Amino acid sequence: MTERKVALVTGGGSGMGRATSLRLAGEGRAVAVLDINAAAARAVAEEIAAAGGTALAVAADISRREQVRAALAEIRGALGPVTILVNNAAIENFCPLGELDDETWDRLMAVNLKGFYIVTQEVLPDMEAATWGRVVNLSAIGAQTGAPDMALYTASKGGIIAMTRSLAVELGRKGITVNSVSPGFIDTPMARRAIDGDLFPVPYEQIVANYPIPRLGLPEEIAAACCFFASEDAGYVTAQVLGVNGGAAV
Ligand SMILES: NC(=O)c1ccc[n+]([C@@H]2O[C@H](COP(=O)([O-])OP(=O)(O)OC[C@H]3O[C@@H](n4cnc5c(N)ncnc54)[C@H](O)[C@@H]3O)[C@@H](O)[C@H]2O)c1
Questions:
Q1: Which of 40, 112, 132, 222 has its CA at a distance of 20 to 30 angstroms from the CA of residue 16?
Q2: How far is ligand 1, taken at its centre, from the CA of residue 108, in Å?
Q3: What is the CATH number of the domain that holds 221?
Q4: From ligand 1's centre to the CA of 113, what distance in Å?
C-alpha cells in the first residue's frame, strides 16, 4: 500500500497541474493545490474531495516569498509536512527578442525561475526532516530544441533543467530525488491560448502532423510521468529529464 504522503502541486488549478493533482490524490496522497487563481485551486480541491480524496486549496503567487510561507504554514497545519513537490506553475511568453521589454523579462523570470527556487527552498526542511523527498520540475521541450519567439520562456525552462541536475547532485545523500518532466505540445489552457492567439508560425495541426505520434499530448500523460518520479518506485532515479513529447525531440 502506498504510504500516505503530502504532495504540493504549484499551478494545480489548471492543465497539467490539475491532472497531476487529481492523479496524486487518486494514488492516496493528500494534495495541496496551490495556485495564484484561488477559484481554480478551489475547484480542483473540490473535485478531489468529491472523488473521495484529501485536498487543500491554497492561493499564492509563487514569486512572493511571504505568500509561499503563509501557504506552507496553512498546508503543514492542515495536512502535515510536504515531502512531494511538483513545481509546475509557470507563465508563457511569445515575443521576438527585439521586441522584448525588461518588465516582461523580469516578471517571467520571477515566476518561472525565482518562484521555483522560493517554493523548493521553503519546502526543503520538511523533506530533510523526513530524509525522503521527491521534487518534480516541469521544464519544456523548447529548452531542448529552441523555439521561435520563445527565447525568454525557454531560457527560464533551461534554468529549470540546470537546477534540476544541480539540486539532484546536492540532495541525493539526503534521500531527496530531483527530476524534470519536459512536456512537448500538450492540450492545456496554456497551449490553447497560443493556438487561439495565432502565435505559432504555422497552424498547430501542421506542427503535430510531423511528430512520430501525430497529435497533441494530454495533461494526463504528463501527470503519469510526474507521478512516476514522485513514487517510491523511483527512489534510484534522479537528475533525469524525461521528454513526454510524442517523439518530437529525442
Ligand atoms: N502546455 C504546453 O504545451 C506546455 C509545453 C511545455 C511546457 N509546459 C509547462 O508545463 C507546466 C504546466 O503548463 P500548463 O500548460 O498546464 O499551463 P496552464 O497555464 O494551463 O496552468 C498553469 C497554472 O499556473 C498558475 N500560475 C501562473 N502563475 C502563477 C504564480 N505566479 N503563482 C502560482 N500559480 C501560478 C496559473 O494560474 C495556472 O493555473 C508549465 O510549467 C508550463 O510552462 C507547457
A1: 132
A2: 12
A3: 3.40.50.720
A4: 13
Atom 2, ligand 1: residue with shortest CA distance: 186
Q: Which of 153, 204, 211, 236 is catalytic?
A: 153
Q: Is the CB–ligand 1 distance for residue 61 below 6 Å?
A: yes
Does the C-beta of 17 come closer than 6 Å to ligand 1? yes
The per-type count for the chain, helices as H runs and strands as E runs, is: 10, 7
236 in catalytic set: no
| Domain, as residue range, for 154 | 6-185+217-243
User: Strand order in 241-244's β-sheet?
Assistant: 54-59, 30-35, 6-10, 82-87, 133-138, 176-183, 241-244
Q: What's the total number of domains in the chain?
A: 1
Q: Would 180 be classed as within a structural domain?
A: yes
Tell me what the pLDDT averaged over the chain comes to. 97
Which has the closest alpha carbon to 172: 127, 238, 84? 238
For 202-235, write each residue's pLDDT tens digit: 999 999 999 999 999 999 999 999 999 999 999 9
Residue 88 Cβ contacting ligand 1 at under 6 Å: yes
**Average pLDDT over every residue of 83-99:** 98
3-49 pLDDT, tens digit per residue, is 569 999 999 999 999 999 999 999 999 999 999 999 999 999 999 99
The sign of the dihedral angle between the CA atoms of 98, 102, 104, 109 is positive
